[in-house]
Amino acid sequence: MHDIVLTIFALTGLLALVSLLLPLADRLAIPYAVLLAAVGCAIGGVIALVGNTVGVGIVGDLVHALDGFNLTAEALLYIFLPVLLFETALNVDVQHLTEEIAPVLLLAVIGVLVSTMVVGIALWAAFGVTLVACLLLGAVVATTDPVAVVAIFRDIGAPRRLSMLVEGESLFNDAAAIALYALLLTMLTGEHPSSPLHAVVDFLRAFAGGLAAGYVAGLLVSRVSPVLRDHDLAETTLTIALAYLIFVISEHYLAVSGVVAVVTAGLVINHEGRRRLSPSSWKVLIRTWEQIGFWATSLIFLLAAMMVPGLLAEARLYQVAELAVLTIATFAARAITLYGLLPMLSGLGLAERVGRDHKLVILWGGMRGAVSLALALATTENTALAPEIRQFVGVLATGFVLFTLFVSAPTLRPLMRLLRLDQLSPAELALRDRVTALYLSTIGEDIDNVARQHGIAGAAVDNAASWYRGRAAAAALIAEENAQLPPESLLRSSIRILVEREQELYRQHFDARAMSRRALARLLSRTAQLRDAVKSGGIAEYRAAAAKVVGFPRDFRFDLALQRYVGIEWPLARAIADRFEAQLTARVVVDELRAFNADQLRRLFGDGPCKTVDATLATRLDLISQAIDALMLQYPGYASALQTQFLTLRAIRLEEEQYQRLRAESIVTSEVFNDLMRSLGHRRSAAEKRPRLDLGLKRADLVARVAIFAQIDARKRAKICRLLRAQLALPGEVILRKGERGDSMFFISSGAVEVRIEPRPVRLGTGDFVGELAMLDSRPRSADVVALGFCQLLRLSSRDFDRLMRADDSLREQIRSIADQRRDSAAAN
Ligand code: CMP
After folding, report:
1. Taking every pair of C-alpha atoms in the chain, what is the biggest distance, in angstroms?
2. Residue with the nearest Cα to atom 15 of ligand 1?
3. How many whole angstroms from 771 Cα to the centroid of ligand 1?
4. Average pLDDT, stretch 661-689?
5. Atom of ligand 1 nearest to the CA of 780
């Protein structure tokens, strides 16, 4: 048979096997990865035994095909690694990962270094093998593989944090171990005589370079994705291309770590893409990646395991002792990181403490898998290395991988059961009981009704309904329990749920296409702040954070500065439009939260917490309404345009639901349905384009609105106009600060300000001016002046002040006389 036909035969044969192994692993209740490894080893063994004796025919050809499946370690890594890493990065909870980044990086990067050192030195000291070779072996066995462990965790419902630590570790330690491996290899083969210092610098450079390359590429692709909008297949394809391209480009053209680049790119797509892609596209993308990831995991495990018999065939009996030392050293190294270094991190306040049981599971659950096997294989294939080193690394690394897969993995589950990590925490148990009691209590009656409807009676009804009836009794107990529990703990539980709900509601609004991605991003980052506040404190922190999030964030101030000092206006206009949209949605959502609180949270936690939460939400609503009012006052036209857009989108959504119903009930044919949806799609795209906000900072218009410029003749006014700069002040912004040196004055074209003077503040509005006293008297500012809402101002610098005073006599006199009055009133007080 032709080579390519044989390859296809072998590959698809393996895929067929894989599809059977997954349900088999379930049935046998062993981790899938372990079964794969076992079957792979078995296939490898059979081929080694009978490879030369079988003839032609289906079985013979399949054996030959698998035997001749000459996949080098390099090919194995290049084909599978980008997919495996990218897929894991795509599915990690990025927010959770950032919270745990310190322990994750410690386990991954420092852990790999410690492991390599300890293993290297132990073997070198015990058996006298070259140190660098021992270190190389250390690097090979330093990468953990999450596949087996995460499956076990998922199966027995392990705590989220534990999964995060293990998954995060394996995501980054491949990078660290492979980079280290490459370095040690160059030291061994002597291509570049490298000093330890060089080695460290190279390592850091490769790591940081990979980080930058992956970040830029990920960002680039996530920016391009919206252009491919509604072409799910194209979007998914682009991410697959990204995983491979960034790997190859980083490794071969940029000489930085491809592994780090892939992981980073995956994380960026995870974080950015989720916001930029439509929810349905994101689902398609994740599903496709899940499939590809499954193929990659299965095949790399099988193929790598198939090579195990070959590697072990060279093993010598004395190597059992080496393997024992290797195993002890690896666990010791992990213990040093977990019990020595990790507590230091918590001591420094960089990480939450990791519990004793968690540490034990992480220690025992550090499985090694396909990457270690592939690296071991790569070592044995490397002809530049001495044969005894190749044999040493190949045999021991393989032996150790098998040990973790066949000894640690099967015993991990019992260990976790022993530590009771498969059980819910007391708080979670309490919530579970509450939920089942409160929400299932009416199901008993529902079953009675269904039974009656279908003419079922007797024991069948009682059998089916008895547990639910018991819930009703439990519900009554909850009320008593509420009365006994400390109110703060109930309140805390309510706000925890509340912030989660808020996030969910924003997503729903976005899914219903009722707001833009930019507004969603803004609102989600605000909810993240609220959630952090709840975590670190209670309701008080939540209130403080709620007041803070209606303020203007840092990037907003940046856009403002761009307008003021550089004269670039559009980022500010966009930021204000975003704010408008976000606040309008926030108002709707906080309203919904109040209803949710009155309905669900009251049911769960009782009246007391419900009242407190409601009062807090009412305050939030006030703050948001104030912010919206300020915007409406300044930009009424834009507010109405946004409201029109909101209603139009809602109408289109309703229209879509109608069409879907008509189609589901076969009232319209699929052709008619598609036609209707196409036209709806066009209208929706048009409606989704947010109206542009005009900041209204045209100088001439603003000048025309200031009374004292009105009487001046047109030519002079044009001259004066050139001296002035238009700018926007934010609600609450301190425009002038008492005691500061004055370098400008302001004319108010629209809006209102408050001059904070004793005994009573003075309000000034459109047509007035402030800041003239410091100019005239060359003295510090006499009072604070604060914007009451958005204000359009015309700024006149002190340099141009004299020119203005010279430009027109009556203007000068008017300014002087108002200034005199103000001085007099100050003196009178
Ligand atoms: P300046 O002293 O530069 O900064 C504070 C400004 O507040 C001041 O200029 C005036 O423009 C304004 N101001 C001070 N006192 C009064 C007042 N009594 N009535 C109105 N505006 C005032």
Report:
1. 115
2. 822
3. 6
4. 92
5. 2
Ligand 1 mutation pick, 737, 782, 823, max ligand atoms within 8 A of CB: 782
Report which protein residue has its CA nearest ligand 1's atom 17: 822
Q: In what order do the strands lie in the sheet with 753-756?
A: 734-736, 784-787, 753-756, 762-764
Do β-strands 791-797 and 784-787 pair in parallel, antiparallel, or remain unpaired?
Answer: unpaired
Q: CB–CB of 694/641 below 8 Å?
A: no
Q: Residue 826 CA: which ligand 1 atom is closest?
A: 18
Query: Does 274 have pLDDT greater than 90?
Result: no
Ligand 1 centroid–CA 727 distance in Å is 19
Q: Which residues contact 25 (CB under 8 A, 6 or more apart)?
A: 31, 32, 34, 35
pLDDT of 576-613, one tens digit each? 999 999 999 999 999 999 999 999 999 888 888 899 99
CA of 721 to the centre of ligand 1 (A): 23
Is this prediction's pTM over 0.90? no
Contact 324, 399 (CB under 8 A): no
Q: What percent of the chain has pLDDT over 70?
A: 98
Q: What is the DSSP letter of 725?
A: E
CA of 769 to the centre of ligand 1 (A): 9
Cβ neighbors of 122 (< 8 A, separation 6 or more) are 134, 325, 326, 328, 329, 332
Helix (H, G, I), strand (E, B) or coil at 795: strand
Tell me: pLDDT of 1 over 70.
Answer: no
Alpha-carbon torsion 532, 533, 536, 542, what sign?
A: negative
State mean pLDDT over 478-492.
78
pLDDT digits (tens, 9 = 90+) for 528-537: 888 888 877 7
DSSP letter for 731, please.
Answer: T
Cβ contact 587:610 at 8 Å: no
pLDDT at 70 over 70: no
Ligand 1 site-directed mutation target among 822, 823, 824, most atoms within 8 Å of CB = 822
- Kindly give the number of the ligand 1 atom that is closest to the alpha carbon of 755: 7
Token pair in block for residue 362:
């992480």
Q: What are the tens digits of pLDDT across the range 99-144?
A: 888 899 999 989 999 999 999 999 999 988 889 899 999 999 999 9
Residue 443 vs residues 214, 439, 449, 464: alpha-carbon distances, Å: 52, 8, 10, 10
Flag whether pLDDT at 522 surpasses 80.
yes
Q: Which of 736, 763, 778, 820 to mutate to test the pocket of ligand 1 (most atoms within 8 A of CB)?
A: 736
Closest CA to 314 of 384, 377, 391: 391
Mean residue pLDDT across the chain: 88
Most confident listed range (138-152, 188-202, 609-623): 609-623
Cα 749 to ligand 1 centre (Å): 17
Residue nearest to atom 12 of ligand 1 (CA): 770
Residues with CB under 6 A from ligand 1: 736, 742, 755, 757, 762, 770-774, 781-783, 785, 822, 825-826
Rounded CA-CA distance 406/413 in Å is: 13
What is the predicted pLDDT for the residue at 30? 85
Give the distance, in angstroms, between the CA of residue 782 and the centroid of all CA atoms in the same chain. Answer: 49
Q: What atom in ligand 1 is closest to the CA of residue 769?
A: 11
- Give the three-state DSSP class for 762: strand
Ligand 1 centroid, distance to 101 Cα (angstroms): 52
Q: Residue 576: what residue type?
A: I
Q: Ligand 1: which of 785, 793, 797 to mutate, judged by most atoms within 8 Å of the beta carbon?
A: 785
E strands, 622-739, are 724-729, 734-736
